[in-house]
Each structure stands twice: as structure tokens, then as C-alpha cells.
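Technical annex B. To support the medicinal chemistry partners, we prepared a structural model of the target in complex with FEC, based solely on the information shown next.
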Amino acid sequence: AKKAIGVLVMSYGTPESLDGVEAYYTHIRRGHPPSAEQLEDLTSRYQAIVGGVFPLRENTNGQVAALQRTLDSLAGEGTYACYQGLKHASPYIEDGVAAMAAAGITEAIGIVLTPQYSAMSVGGYMKRAQEEADKQGIAFKAVQEYHLHPQLIDALSKRVNDGLERLGDSREDSLVLFSAHSLPAKILEMNDPYADQLLATSAAVAKAAGVEKWQFTWQSAGQTGQPWLGPDILETLERLSAEGVKSVLVTPVGFVSDHLEVLYDIDIEARKFADARGIRLERIRMLNDDPQYMNALADSVIGAANGRT
Ligand code: FEC
């Protein structure tokens, strides 16, 4: 039989349980344990989110399974074999590559469950995957980005229309607020494509949904003592309230799952902030294992395997 091409599906990772939060946070901080206060703050955010304490794990599992089914139906069973590799939790990126090698795979494609490239995000995942693939003797190719894939844009634009419908009467006055995870502002000196790709995704989704009133804002900046890209979503909501905006549809374009940065940072923190300023805030449904999103991923993987990227 023909040997399968490995697909390393990479995602951020989340703790297994509340006991695992400290080790997870320490890994994110590159081996520096958080202070007791930082740990307490993060633990309380996990405790506050609804729909399961660590929904990202189940959502990533569901995405990997759905991508496997999509690849099977597009390319035939046995052509591609998906493996999971997480940035900050087990199974780590290196574990996923080692599992491929153990299965006899010699050729693999890597793809990250976030559409836009940054040297600090996708670049970091790919560097670790490439290094382990080199060690294991696997020929590795990366899907760097898929931020303008037509199936991704269509899936997001449908969600924008759904969300505007939920805002009901205020649809005409609603503003679509695209958002993404902030990064340290030093990426601007590196000519990083992250911000441009996020704006390109946002503009394409707005166009496809027929939305004219939209803006982009950052969210979820870390506290590292260094400046991060702004304005943050809370600053943006403050300004919008001063401008008299009454209804906002938050549309994350860099996140693809329900997880802490959506369920806490938007649904709890930003919503409370908006409520206090008389702004009605809704959020689009996240993609999770949406079939069009799975198609965008599968098509990008097949494209890379056939030398299209
Ligand atoms: O639900 C979950 O358990 C995980 C939610 C989660 C996602 C996520 C995605 C991204 N991050 C990105 C960059 C950074 C940088 C730092 C950083 C820190 C954290 C902390 C938590 C956390 N991130 Fe995250 N991120 C998620 C969770 N992230 C928790 C630590 C506490 C905090 O700051 O709140 C700063 C690291 C440092 O200290 O040096 C930088 C980027 C993404 C989106 C792309 C991707 O998914 O990979 C970029 C989901």
C-alpha cells in the first residue's frame, strides 16, 4: 500500500484540569513559573467560563477528527493521516511528529488552527515542528497561512450575518468589530505580516457579508512589561460608546474555537464593559469543526502536498 502523508494539526493547547494550570502557565512563560497572584487570576478565569472548564481540548480533538474525515473524502482514505501537536500542552508538537515517525511516515504537512501568519505565533509552531521532523527524518512542509481562503471567508461571513440578525432591530446601527489576539509591538519592527493579514481577512469578510460599518481591534494582550499592539477591545468600546454606538458584533478572525480568550475575554469581560456603557454586544459563533472551515484546511493541506504553496 501507498504510504500516508502525515498531517500535523497544531493548536494552542489547554490544561487537562485545574491542577494542570500552573504547569501550562509555566510553559507559556517559557519555563518561568507565574506568581501566586498570576496563577490565581488565570485559574479564576477558567472557573468563570461556561460550557466546560477547558473547552479548547474537546474542540481541537473535534477539529482534528473532522479534518481527517474531510481529507478522506477529498483525497481517498489512507492518503493523509492526521496527528495532533499542541504548543503548550500534551500531546506537544514534538510528540505529534514523533508519533508520525513511529508510524513509518516520511513526508508530512504542518498546519496551525489559526489562519494568519506571524513569526511569533505560526512561525513558532512551525520552527518546533521542522526541528523535530529533521531529527526524525521526515520531509516537512508548512502551510504558513490561509487567511483569505474562500471557504474560510464564506463561513465567517455567514456567521456575521447570523450575528447581525441576533442584534435584530439594531442591525442598521450595528458595528462589526473584528478582533484578534494582540502580540508584542516589537513585531512591527520585524515587518511581520500578522496585522496586514488580519485586516485582509476582516475586509474580505465584511465585503462578503455586505457590511460597511466595521473596525478592527486587538484583544487579550499579555502583561509582560513590554508594549503590545493596540488599541485593546476595551479601549475601542470606550471610544465607540463616546461616539454613540449602541450595538456591536464582535467577530474574532484569528481564533477558530471556543476557548478562554473568547469565552472569558469577550463574552464575560468585554460584554460587562459594554453593558456598563449602554452598548449591546454580541459575538459570532466560533468555527470549531464547521464543514467549510474543514474544507479550507483540507484544501490548504492538499495544496501544500502538491506543491501549490
Ligand atoms: O482556552 C485555553 O485554555 C487557551 C486559550 C488561549 C489561546 C491563545 C492563543 C494565542 N495566544 C497568542 C499569544 C500569546 C502570547 C502570550 C500569551 C499568553 C497566554 C496566557 C494564556 C493564553 N495565552 Fe495566548 N492563548 C491562550 C491562552 N499568548 C492563559 C498567559 C496568561 C495571559 O497572558 O493571559 C504571552 C506569553 C509571555 O508571557 O511571554 C505572546 C496568540 C494566539 C492566537 C494564535 C494561536 O492560537 O496560536 C498569537 C487560544
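Notes passed to the chemistry partners:
The pocket of FEC is lined by residues 12, 14, 25, 28-29, 42, 54, 56, 114, 121, 181, 183, 222, 224, 254, 259-261 (CB under 6 Å).
The mean pLDDT is 96.
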